[in-house]
From TrEMBL:
The protein's name: Cellulose synthase-like protein G3
Membrane in keyword set: yes
Principal location class: membrane
Residues the record lists as binding UDP-alpha-D-glucose: K122, E123, D152
Keywords: Cell wall biogenesis/degradation, Glycosyltransferase, Membrane, Transferase, Transmembrane, Transmembrane helix
Signal peptide: none
Molecular function in Gene Ontology: cellulose synthase (UDP-forming) activity
Cellular component, GO, one term: membrane
Record's subcellular location: Endomembrane system
């Protein structure tokens, strides 16, 4: 039996054409040597701190060294947890053109696609519709595809949009097929150049009419009588009775297209399309997206029970119509390990500005680190663009955990129409909000509950059960999604992730212990890197304030330039930054984008990570209860214009901006005071490191100074935020002045 990591070309003779290959990155050897050298550097630094700590004579020097020691221990820990990403990074290739040698089209497995949406105002229904239409138009036998849309917003507006989409699909699908359109998302297609394509104009008009209709219904906030054309539609909308709210309503399941029954305008079969809004009750927890996905798993089991399942966020439209064939290269490889549980495509985004000022591409997370984890066969699930074997949700590879009713078993064969009374009755039953009580859903079955990052957590738990995974990286992005284009949204998203990750880190499933025990230390460390992502805030916040406050009080904290320990600092700094930059450049990212990424790392450090960390602790004590705050996908024209010009957006009152502005102020003042000191007393040697740190942070803070003083547009920092920050900076300065005098 061959593992997914082994190249198919090594197989017995005569070798069949390969379905997939992999190549270990050439830098592995260098990475390992560097890791060894860098570890020695870190140990030396910790030794240096320990000596200073033992020899500290005053309360001040004691607390300063303790802070540095703590920060550097955290930095060392975070560095150490990146080792798994660097030990065996790999790059894979697939050859869908060779599929015919192992599988006929009629044998392709059926595919259930899950699309989640949660709020028609933050996630415009037209966006969700575009995602659904793009996957319905896959290069895959349409009768094998079923698209299920889960609407946690329980909105008739979304249902209306999908009724319109079902009608439009009858034209769109044959149009894509006949013209071999590569861009299967209508919105993206009509924004691009369609010159010379037969009937493109006719389709565009149809699309525009649908769009206008849906958008006007969304603007009005309700589906008017004039929009309802059939009795069937009326019956569906009648479910929105007076007491129907998004937090309290019965399940709504509407079959909009049934394969076998509904044909497109060329007479071909269409995929199934099902709208689903699970039952909600204010008194029962609904477990956010994980809860929605589990209902999708069950409802789809009662209707089609496809052996392969794809999860998609509502904004992640299909960009490469061959994607499912690429997945088949793994899933239908007769030699692949039966433990292969999922094939993940990296998250990629459209509409990112030239230099990616907010580092929204998250290259490190979605590509660099994922390639490393892929080498260990345990790349994580990132919530969207992931194809699972349905079996994976029912226990480890060797132990099937049976669901409560046989119809939910992964190998159960459905042989009734999805519109039949029996199927619909069962579907409604499994979509009810108390269905899960006293079952294993969320703990041993399905997507796992207990973390706001259900994707990371579920992937990790599946890995611990023994499942393996593959990262499928293609040049043309498989899916493209929206990245937040406003700083507040982005920081709030990172904050939500930080909380969710800590929930895993501090649970009994902590990757350092449980993960290491189940799948070995490397996987444990790799997952721990993310579980403890937000403790970056400890060193980042310390280094953003402490040396600067010390400098303002004339206290030197680091070795002089002439001291040999100084060179250790230089090595550690240049080594870490240099390696990071090199890794970005090697995956084709420009240095400018890397620079912006490290800036965002600092920004997140003093805002999202810090706030997430604090929120998590408050949550532990039951003081706060943060939920899944959906990221807005609505684009404001003015904001989008500023974003495209590469200008930061600070124009909303957000507590997350206060520490940013405070950091900017303290560093500016300390740099100036330090510089004056150097000019007047020529004591550069002693304070060089502190001066350098202030200057470095200052350069990174440039957009913040601009937003505070130089800009006049609506995205500038609110005066209130600036005032609060000045007050906070003054308080910090005065308390430090007092502390340094003790
Ligand atoms: O109660 C909820 C909350 C969210 N969603 C859906 O979850 C998806 C992701 O939400 P979004 O606000 O876009 O969050 P992001 O932070 O951008 O998403 C990333 O992080 C999430 C975990 O925090 C993962 O679920 C996502 O797949 C991953 O792309 C969207 O389609 C939502 O409609 C639900 O279905 N129900
Ligand atoms: Mn998103």
């Amino acid at each position: 039996m061959r593992c997914p990591s082994e190249s198919t070309t090594t197989h017995s003779s005569p070798p069949p054409p390969p379905l997939h290959t992999l190549e270990v990155m050439r830098r592995v050897g260098l990475n390992r040597v560097f890791a060894l050298v860098y570890t020695c550097g870190i140990l030396a630094l910790l030794y240096h701190h320990s000596l200073a700590f033992l020899h500290s004579t005053t309360v001040l020097s004691f607390s300063l060294t303790l802070s540095l020691l703590l920060s550097d221990v955290v930095l060392a820990f975070m560095w150490f947890t990146t080792l798994p990403f660097r030990m065996r990074p790999i790059r894979r290739r697939v050859f869908p053109e060779n599929l015919t040698s192992v599988i006929k089209e009629s044998q392709y497995p059926a595919l259930d696609v899950f699309i989640c949406t949660a709020d028609p105002y933050k996630e415009p229904p037209m966006r969700v519709v575009n995602t659904a239409l793009s996957v319905m138009a896959y290069d895959y036998p349409p009768e094998k595809v079923s698209v299920y849309v889960s609407d946690d917003g329980g909105s008739e507006l979304t249902l209306f949009a999908f009724m319109e989409a079902a009608k439009f699909a009858a034209h769109w699908l044959p149009f894509c097929r006949m013209n071999r359109i590569e861009e299967r998302c209508p919105d993206a297609y009509f924004r691009s150049n369609q010159a010379g394509v037969f009937e493109a104009e006719r389709l565009k008009t149809k699309y525009e009419i649908m769009k206008e209709k849906v958008e006007s219904v969304v603007d009005r906030g309700r589906v008017g009588e004039e929009c309802i054309t059939t009795e069937q539609e009326r019956e569906a909308f009648n479910k929105w009775t007076a007491g129907f709210t998004c937090q309290d309503h019965p399940p709504v399941i509407q079959v909009l297209l049934e394969s076998g029954n509904d044909k497109d305008e060329a007479g071909h079969e269409m995929p199934n399309l099902v709208y689903l809004s699970r039952q909600k009750s204010k008194t029962l927890p609904h477990n956010f997206k994980a809860g929605a996905l589990n209902v999708l798993l069950r409802v789809s089991a009662t209707m089609t029970n496809a052996p392969v399942v794809l999860t998609l966020d509502c904004d992640m439209y299909l960009n490469d119509s061959q994607t499912p064939l690429r997945v088949l290269c793994y899933l239908s490889d007769p030699f692949i390990t039966p433990k292969l549980g999922y094939v993940q495509f990296p998250q990629r985004f459209h509409g990112i500005n030239k230099n990616d000022i907010y580092a929204s591409e998250l290259k490190r997370l979605f590509q660099i680190h994922s390639m490393g984890m892929d080498g260990l066969e345990c790349t994580s699930y990132v919530g969207t663009g992931c194809f699972f074997r349905r079996r994976i949700f029912f226990g480890g590879p060797a132990t099937l955990v049976s669901p409560e009713i046989p119809e939910l078993n992964p190998d159960y064969v459905v042989n009734k129409s999805i519109k039949s009374h029996a199927v619909l009755a069962l579907a409604h039953q499994v979509a009810s909000c108390n269905y899960e009580s006293h079952t294993k859903w969320g703990s041993k079955m399905g997507f796992r509950y207990g973390s706001l990052v259900e994707d990371y957590y579920t992937g990790y738990r599946l890995q611990c059960e023994g499942w393996k995974s593959v990262l499928c990286h293609s040049d043309r992005a498989a899916f493209l999604g929206d990245a937040p284009i406003n700083l507040d949204d982005l920081l709030n998203q990172t904050k939500r992730w930080s909380i969710g990750l800590l929930e895993v880190g501090f649970s009994k499933y902590c990757p350092l212990t449980f993960g290491t025990w189940s799948r070995g230390p490397l996987m444990g460390l790799g997952y721990a890197h993310y579980a403890f992502w937000s403790i970056w805030s400890i060193p980042i916040t310390t280094y953003a304030f402490l040396p600067q406050l010390a400098l303002l009080n004339g206290v030197s904290m680091f070795p002089k330039v002439s001291n040999p320990w100084f060179y250790l600092y230089v090595f550690l700094f240049v080594g870490a930054y240099g390696q990071d930059c090199l890794e970005f450049v090697l995956v084709g990212v420009t240095v400018q984008r890397w620079w912006n990424d490290q800036r965002m790392w600092m920004i997140r450090g003093v805002s999202s990570y810090l706030f997430g960390f604090i929120d998590f602790i408050l949550k532990l004590f039951g003081i706060s209860a943060s939920g899944f705050n959906v990221t807005s996908k609505v684009v404001d024209d003015e904001q989008s214009k500023r974003y495209n010009q590469g200008i930061f957006e600070f124009g909303v009152p957000s507590p997350l901006f206060v520490p940013l502005a405070t950091t900017a102020l303290i560093n500016l003042v300390s740099f100036l005071v330090g510089l004056i000191g150097v000019i007047r007393f020529r004591n550069m040697e002693e304070i060089f490191v502190q001066l350098f740190l202030s200057g470095f942070v200052m350069v990174n803070c440039w957009p913040i100074y601009e937003a505070m003083v130089l800009r006049t547009d609506k995205g500038r920092m609110l005066t209130k935020t600036t005032k609060i920050s000045i007050l906070l900076a003054l308080t910090l300065y005065l308390s430090a002045a007092l502390a340094f005098k003790i």
